[in-house]
Amino acid sequence: MSEFPVPAAARLPVRKTYKLYLGGGFPRSESGRSYPVTSAEGEPLAHAALASRKDARDAVVAARRAFAPWAARTAYNRGQILYRVAEMMEGRRAQFVQETIDAEGLDTARAEEVVSAAVDRWVYYAGWTDKVTQVLGGTNPVSGPYDNRSVPEPTGVVAVLAPPKSPLLGLVSVIAPVIATGNTAVVVASEPHPLPAVTLAEALATSDLPGGVVNILTGRLAELAPPLASHADVNALDLAGAGERAAELEEAAATTLTRVLRPRPSTDWAAAPGLSRITPFLETKTVWHPVGI
Amino acid sequence: MADTTFAYAPAPESRAVVSLRPAYGLFIDGAFTPPTERLITTVNPADEESLAEVSVADEGDVDRAVTAARRAFEQVWSPMPPAERGKYLFRISRIIQERARELAVLESLDNGKPIKESRDVDIPLAAAHFFYYAGWADKLAHAGFGAAPRPLGVAAQVIPWNFPLLMLAWKIAPALATGNTVVLKPAETTPLTALLFAEICQQAELPPGVVNIVTGAADTGRALIAHPGTDKVAFTGSTEVGREIARTVAGTRKKLTLELGGKGANIVYDDAPLDQAVEGIVNGIFFNQGHVCCAGSRLLVQESIAEEVLHRLKERVSRLRLGDPLDKNTDIGAINSAEQLARIRALAQTGRDEGSQDWAPDCELPAHGYWFAPTIFTGVTQAHRIAREEIFGPVLSVLTFRTPDEAVEKANNTPYGLSAGVWTEKGSRMLWTAGRLRAGVVWSNTFNKFDPTSPFGGYRESGYGREGGRHGLEAYLDV
């Protein structure tokens, strides 16, 4: 049996650099900036990338490029990939638990519950991908010789402001329903607790999720949210984490008639979500065709 | 014999079924107020003759209407057994059917649209819409919005002038069926069928305050949209006004649905059934003088058949009959207002200025009233304003394409996303194309068909929310 040169107790750990997740890659902010992240108790944890407006615009470009091919995947395939995300998260369970403890100040048992709920949420939405069309769409009995059907379709690029106080379960709860139906997402992670989002990005990157389907920015909400809200190539805006800025962001979104999901006064991220976060990011398309011989 | 043309004898529908008051008040809390001090005159766009004067609701009037609607919501309409609510809507639907000819003539007088359209499309569809949503009133638990979906409260509704009574029906029927009460503002230039509808509500013995109609212009609309006492805003109209409304509503509790402009592409593939396609192109852009948000105003024709299609199209358009809206043989009526006519003329002029070629049949326009001949622009590129902006008039822009990919790319190259058309005999190609078009309604081998069961509404800057069908209930439920 060979001897390791340094005993485990004396070894210097290799730390992780927390970066952005953009177009399938992990770049630093183009601005070169970062910001210190502390635990719930105020202990320094790491530096996170401080994304710029330009990073936000790059993320929209990546999300737009990824949209058509992702929406064109079969619902079955999207379901398989979302399920794969759950698998990848389970494999990194210890890391997510530790980051949840650090970020939310929870005890280990409670953090385990949060991570379990986050993993199970992917499984939940993996199962929705190929059911939404039947549940929300259908044939319309028009009074004439026409075949007429309505189907839900993804609305496009969705800017998601993740809830700041639930940096893992809340984050998964806002991303998964958006991409399940074929949308792509630009996500602003929890500003005070961004580290679980970067680790989630690493799970996403190893789940066969095409690059650009989810793009995760860490940084200041005040800097990143306004350009996303008013961006002409953003089709919808989830204000879950907008806080006091919700009204001004909704107003900015009005200019390009961006669909807006307003924040609820209090959201229990552990509760079963149903379709409530799926339908706001869908369009209904109705197709007519004459019937005859 | 060659120079003998078949001539139509005039076949005017009688105006006698319509009786107008000289001046109308507002319909608030189940009764008409005396006419307000400020009045606006609504004219017949076909001859510029005055039809009647209608009131201009100010902020105080709007407030009284909202207060009446709130009281009716809390005390009468929302507590009422849903089946009884539905029966009121069935009643309204029946009265619209009974008074259909009167409504059709009035609609054509006030709007300028041909009687055959108001008689065969607008009014029957309005009645059908009430009949459809009437049946939902006591079945909401089965609509997929939870076991006991709740209404929102008071809805503020602002509608356009292109389908006055039909847009009223699209707004009021689902709102009432779900237990809301409404304050509706009809368009400034087409208030008369809404005021007749108020009478119909009285005939149906609808409880006071459930439906309130406030007439006026843009200021009245703004006052209604901004009123803090409403829970819902529903608007159909231009994208420009839609943006303003979305800004006004931002940060409030109000739920918003918008049905806005469009620049619909009508794609004709080389294997299309040409006779039907030409009918569809004509119907797509010249139905209702092109005053249709979902009009097929961009014709995308495959290059190999472009010449043939244009030839047939011009032949067909040459045979359209423009003139008296009340004549049963009229295909194209009057432009609704002087303001709209000026806008159509200005945009058509940009087409010529930017290098497109316009063609219109040799048809005589009446000396009085607002008229615009059906016009076809060729040599249009995607950069031209007439290919990008909604004209809302009888003006067709023709572009060509070579491959299906190019057709889809051009069709989607617009900030709008309301409607599109596809003409091909090949089923797989139709489905491929329909799947890629970013539009809320796709008509394949047909165009401009509407039905109360069929959800209608846009993608992108054509607005959000759907009207019609089960989907249309969501706009008025707290979900």
UniProtKB/TrEMBL annotation, chain A:
Q: Name one GO molecular function term.
A: oxidoreductase activity
Q: Which Pfam families match?
A: Aldedh
Which InterPro entries does the UniProt entry name for this protein?
Answer: Ald_DH/histidinol_DH, Ald_DH_N, Aldehyde_DH_dom
The record, for SUPFAM superfamilies, names: ALDH-like
Keyword Oxidoreductase assigned = yes
Q: Which residues form a coiled coil?
A: none
Give the domain of life.
Answer: Bacteria
Designated name of the protein: Aldehyde dehydrogenase family protein
Q: Where do the Aldehyde dehydrogenase domain residues begin and end?
A: 37-260
Q: Which of UniProt's keywords are assigned here?
A: Oxidoreductase
UniProtKB/TrEMBL annotation, chain B:
Assigned keywords, A-Z: Oxidoreductase
Question: Is Oxidoreductase found in the keyword set?
Answer: yes
Q: Which residues form the Aldehyde dehydrogenase domain?
A: 36-478
Q: Tell me which domain of life the UniProt entry assigns to the organism this sequence originates from.
A: Bacteria
- GO function terms (MF aspect): oxidoreductase activity, acting on the aldehyde or oxo group of donors, NAD or NADP as acceptor
UniProt similarity note: Belongs to the aldehyde dehydrogenase family.
User: What's the protein called, per UniProt?
Assistant: Aldehyde dehydrogenase family protein
